[in-house]
Design goal:
It is a single chain. This protein has 9 helices and 10 strands. The chain is an alpha/beta fold. The chain folds into 2 domains: 3-64; 75-253, Rossmann fold, CATH 3.40.50. The protein has a 7-stranded mixed beta sheet. A 3-stranded antiparallel beta sheet has the order 3-5-4. Helix 2 (24-37) packs across helix 4 and helix 5 crosses helix 6. The N and C termini lie far apart (39 Å).
Length: 258
């Protein structure tokens, strides 16, 4: 087995990232970034370096997922989420979502904007709330300011001042930001939708099962969990999360068991 293939296997086993989802040219460029940072020449040297310095895996994870925080990231996914929300609002009048690992807030505001668009003129008939958590205090402070330089459509929900886009108060008031570790028991229960994308990769693979069990405890029966395309569901949890859309990594909660 060549060193590049072996490195891809190591990444999957250690971080839970399915790098087969990446374009090879992109993956090689990202790995080369870490080689250069450590003064290494090739994958063989990098594999030996990882054995001696396991903390490097987390730096590699960050490099592989750089620039992932943006509004309505992954068009196909958000089109599917819109369909899911439209079905939800026909059945219930309270919708609660959680952006776990929300970074600078774009995802949390995206789901809240989409919910408001789905409800159209019936907003007052519904209770909606988005919880948004992250361990990074600076990121949470930035998210609360709700001021961005780049958006993807949906302009009506922003005030455009000079070169900045500021989320309107009617959206901001529906999002609650908190500094929180996803490894802790969830502070909110019976959620309808949890977006948990590009978060598991920052933890050791052995922690994934415990973290996802915590996430499961926050979701109502029949609610939904969304992972990123490069993350995988641990085999022991496949009785808790049933595939809803395997291509987009959307799962539906079954009955949770300890």
């Amino acid at each position: 087995m060549d060193e590049f293939r072996l490195l891809k296997l190591k990444i999957k086993r250690k971080l839970g990232i399915n790098v087969e989802q990446y374009r090879e040219s992109f993956l090689r460029r990202r790995i080369q970034t870490r080689l250069h940072a450590n003064g290494l020449e090739n994958c063989a040297e990098y594999l030996r370096f990882l054995e001696k310095h396991p903390e490097e895996y987390q730096k590699l994870a960050k490099t592989l997922t750089i620039n992932v925080s943006e509004f309505f990231r992954d068009k196909e996914l958000w089109e599917e989420i819109e369909k899911m929300l439209r079905r939800m609002v026909r059945k219930k009048t309270m919708i609660r979502a959680w952006s776990a690992g929300c970074a600078t807030g774009e995802e949390a505001y995206s789901i809240t904007i989409l919910l408001n668009e789905v409800l159209e003129g019936n907003r007052n008939k519904y209770y909606i709330k988005t919880y948004a958590t992250d361990l990074d205090e600076k990121a949470i402070k930035f998210a609360k300011k709700a001021t961005y330089t780049k958006i993807k459509g949906h302009e009506k929900w922003f005030n455009h001042i000079e070169k900045k886009y500021i989320v309107k108060d009617e959206i901001k008031k529906l999002v609650k930001f908190e500094i929180r570790d996803v490894r802790e028991p969830p502070s909110h229960k019976l959620l309808d939708l949890v977006l948990f994308r590009n978060v598991l990769i920052y933890f050791e693979r052995k922690e994934h099962e415990r973290i996802l069990k915590n996430i499961c405890d926050s979701i109502r029966p029949g609610g939904y969990l969304i992972l990123s395309l490069v993350e995988t569901m641990p085999d022991p949890l496949k009785n808790l999360f049933l595939p809803y859309n395997s291509k987009l990594k959307i799962f539906q909660k079954a009955a949770c068991r300890s």
